[in-house]
Design brief:
Blueprint (H helix, E strand, L loop, with lengths): L7 H21 L6 H18 L28 E2 L2 E2 L4 E2 L6 H4 L3 E2 L1 H7 L19 H19 L2 H5 L2 H15 L9 H25 L1 H5 L33 H12 L4 H6 L14 H16 L3 H5 L1 H11 L3 H4 L2 E5 L9 H5 L6 H4 L3 E2 L10 H5 L6 E5 L2 E5 L3 H14 L1
Parallel strand pairs: 3-4
Antiparallel strand pairs: 1-2, 5-6, 5-7, 7-8
Helix pairs in contact: 1-2, 2-7, 5-14, 7-12, 8-14
Length: about 425
């Protein structure tokens, strides 16, 4: 029987705690250059607890096939019907919320884009779900939801909600704790890393189409990819490598490690569900994604938010929010007043992803594809209204002359 942790009382208590936490940070945080960052960290943590790690939202154990896995996988709670179409794999929100560990409340769109091409382009049976729509219809819904979310909030999802972003921010704090300086890429290398995101997108989409060549075009280009395996999907050499990006995504092992540590996933179960050689393929943990995870962890310790610079999901979000024509109609923007900017360069040095538009551009909308809308540049800018974050044309937060405020407060203390 499924156990539903989400009760009205629990939800009210949780919402109250979150509200009190936000108010306390905004009212009592004394460091003017860290207030937004502290608020962002708090929101990241409560978002992970509420959605991505499955600690608040249920029900759990509703799919019999997943019962041995533990209490974390969720049934079709959200997104069962989108615009009249059955959509049982969860809402396509542009954050790395691993499907394999978390189930179907909020699902990584990258997984969906791959799976709906292969193996579920024309197959009605998915992983313990039944589809009533074609592959092209499911893809349209995913792309539509990602585009709408990106137009609404842009890469705010990356800076404030993504659980892998939180992991990297914690690595940054660990590096600061041991007093190691971060490294920076050259502007040329940083720009090239931004292009890697779209190369990764192209590779996994092309690979998925090649896998699905039989169902889409009637020609099997890769042996063993004709649907009809024991699980109603495919058989042969591609078993359990249906979604190529998931094979290398560092979020999958991180999610499974954390949830195993919390007791919501049975580690013995996932460590035994391996098909073929361990280094080649596995349903959950493989040496490939472990190696990628370790490499990204090391690089994120050295370079702030390293993964965010090459993340294909961040690239998709940026595509629908910072490139023409989407940029013109995006709701959330970073703006600059060129008359108040003195080119001090503080904003450029503070940016965790080495975005430069807020420094180099004269003024106006300075949102760029590398910008995660974390507002770090705004809180460190020492000039009133030089930088601001807007939503639908309304200012949400703006830079303040915190140097003068600190000097004024210091003079008042001296006078008293």
């Amino acid at each position: 029987m499924p156990t539903d942790i989400l009760t009205p009382t629990a939800l009210m208590i949780y919402a109250l705690v979150v509200a009190i936490g936000i108010i306390a940070i905004l009212k009592f945080s004394k460091d003017k250059t860290r207030k937004i960052s502290t608020l962002r960290l708090f929101i990241q943590v409560v978002a992970v607890m509420a959605v991505f790690m499955g600690l608040i939202i249920g029900p759990f154990n509703a799919v019999p096939a997943f019962v041995p896995l533990g209490s974390s996988p969720r049934d079709r709670l959200i997104g069962t019907d989108v615009l009249g179409n059955q959509f049982p794999d969860g809402l396509s929100i542009p954050v790395l919320a691993c499907y394999y560990g978390n189930g179907r409340t909020v699902t990584c769109p990258i997984w969906q884009l791959q799976a709906y091409i292969y193996p579920f382009w024309s197959f009605q049976r998915g992983y313990a779900v039944v589809y009533s729509t074609s592959g092209i219809e499911k893809l349209a819904v995913v792309i539509g939801m990602v585009a709408a979310a990106s137009l609404l909030l842009g890469r705010f999802f990356c800076g404030w909600l993504c659980p892998f972003g939180l992991y990297q921010d914690l690595l940054t704090k660990a590096r600061k704790f041991i007093r190691l300086r971060h490294l920076s890429f050259s502007d040329k290398t940083s720009a090239r890393l931004g292009q890697v995101r779209y190369l990764i997108i192209a590779v996994f989409l092309i690979s998925s189409v090649l896998f699905a060549s039989y169902t889409i075009f009637g020609t099997e280009l890769i042996p063993g990819t004709i649907p009809g395996g024991p699980f109603g999907t495919e058989a042969g050499i591609t078993s359990w490598i249906n979604e190529p990006f998931c094979l290398v995504c560092p979020m999958r092992p991180l999610c499974l490690f954390v949830q195993s540590g919390l007791g919501s996933i049975n580690w013995r179960y996932i460590s035994q569900i391996v098909y073929g050689s361990f280094y080649e393929r596995g349903m959950y943990i493989t040496s490939i994604n472990l190696t990628i995870f370790i490499a990204v962890t090391i690089l994120a310790l050295a370079y702030r938010r390293f993964w965010c610079r090459i993340c294909p999901l961040g690239g998709l979000t940026a595509l629908f929010s910072t490139f023409t024509p989407f940029k013109q109609i995006a709701f959330t923007k970073l703006k600059k007043d060129e008359h108040k900017c003195t080119k001090c360069g503080i904003c450029k040095r503070a940016c965790p992803t080495q975005a430069t538009a807020m420094y180099e551009k004269k003024g106006g909308d300075v949102t760029e594809s590398k910008c995660m809308l974390c507002a770090r540049c705004i809180e460190v800018c020492p000039y009133n209204n030089a930088l601001k974050l807007t939503f639908a044309g309304k200012t949400v937060v703006k830079s303040r002359n915190w140097l003068d405020e600190m000097n004024t407060a210091g003079n008042m203390l001296k006078a008293s």
